[in-house]
Structures are given as C-alpha cells and as structure tokens.
Amino acid sequence: MLSVALPKGRLGDQVFSMLEQAGYGGANPVKGSRRLVVEDKAAGIRYFLVKPSDVAIYVLHGAADVGVVGKDILLETTPDIYELLDLNIGVCRMAVAGLPNATFCRQALRVATKYPNIAKSYFDAQSREIQLIALNGSIELAPLVGLSDVIVDIVETGSTLKANHLKVLEEIMPISARLISNIASYKFKAQAIQAMQDALAREANKKGEGTK
To answer: How many CB atoms within 10 Å of residue 58?
Structure first.
C-alpha cells in the first residue's frame, strides 16, 4: 500500500478534498473519526494524520511514502526528501512584521520567531546583525511587550497582525503546501507515486489558474 501522511487541521481538510477530486477518495481520515490511520484497500492507499510539523519526519524515515507539508517547514528543517509538487493550497507568506514605527537601526535587531533558520538566512543575506529569540507561540506578543523589535512568521490574511496593531514590514517569500516523497519509496513505488503526483498536478493547476 501507498502510505500518505496528511497534516491535521484545516490544511488536512484541503488536502483530502484535493485528493478526492484527483480520484483518491475512499474513507476520509480527516472528518468524523478519531482514528489516526485509515486504509482504502481497494485503492491501495493508507492515510494517517500527524501534526503538520511532523509530516516530513514520517516521510524522511519511511513511515510514510509521501506526505503534504508546508514549504516553511521544508525550508526550516531541510529534510532529506524529494519535493515533488506545489499544490497551490495553504497559500500564505513568510514575512517580517512589527509595529508601524519599528526601527531597523539597532545594532543587533531582536527577532522573535518560530523559524530561526529562515530568519537567520534572510537577515544574513542582507548582512544584518540579529539577536534571535526562539518562541513557540503568540509570536505577535513579542514586539508589543518589548521582547523583540520585529517578528518573522507566517502571514495569511494579516488579520491577527492588524488586531494587534502590527504590520508587515518586509516580505520574505511565498509559502504553500508541497507534496513530498521518501527517497527510497520514490524508487520502489515509483509508479504509484507518479500516478498520484500527476493526478494532484492537474488539480493544482486548476487552483493556480483560479487565483490568476
């Protein structure tokens, strides 16, 4: 069977909807069940749900043959996997944000983030000296209480920033969900993985055309 790691949450809903449209429906592990593993024996597919940040780990170690993960996680953790396809879902952006009057004149800019590697690479490319402050949640709070000058985080609609009187100061890169594969699986289950990739590519193209 082809094992597919899906992210829990809203992205998982979008991914499974896309799989259904691509002809990979069967039992839906995302809705209406507490089961973490669902098999569609007729289609030869096994789905399981994991925390979004763990998808690449399951794929890397071969517990899953393929998975869907945000580009942000791939850039932050650089797992040794194959990135096969941009699915054109979960679209957002990685950005530097802060108070409207945030200053970049400080000798060592204090940057709060859940993405230290992405932040470091971005500011290193600009030869900016920074002090990284690693946080796991409520990133928007950091500049409000003086913990940091700016934050580096995912921005989707910008409503959370606006509600906290923050704004995007610099855009780093666009982010979206990607189909990834285990390296060995891509060799030994090439036909099944390629078929899924081709089917999802058709759906991704439709979504890409719909956003133009």
So the answer is: 21
C-alpha span between 18 and 28 (Å, rounded): 12
* Full domain range(s) for residue 111: 92-174
Q: Both 72 and 99 in a single domain? A: no
Pairing of strands 2-7, 66-70: parallel
77 phi and psi, to 5 degrees? Answer: -105, -15
pLDDT digits (tens, 9 = 90+) for 144-155: 999 999 999 999
Q: How many Å apart are CA 139 and CA 160, to the nearest integer?
A: 11
Kindly report the CATH number assigned to the domain that includes residue 43. Answer: 3.40.190.10
Report DSSP state, residue 204: H
Do 44 and 54 reside in the same domain of the chain? yes
Report phi then psi at 75, rounded to 5: -70, -35
Instruction: Give the per-residue pLDDT at 23.
Output: 87
pTM comes to: 0.89
Kindly report, residue by residue over 4-25, the tens digit of the pLDDT. 999 988 898 899 889 989 988 7
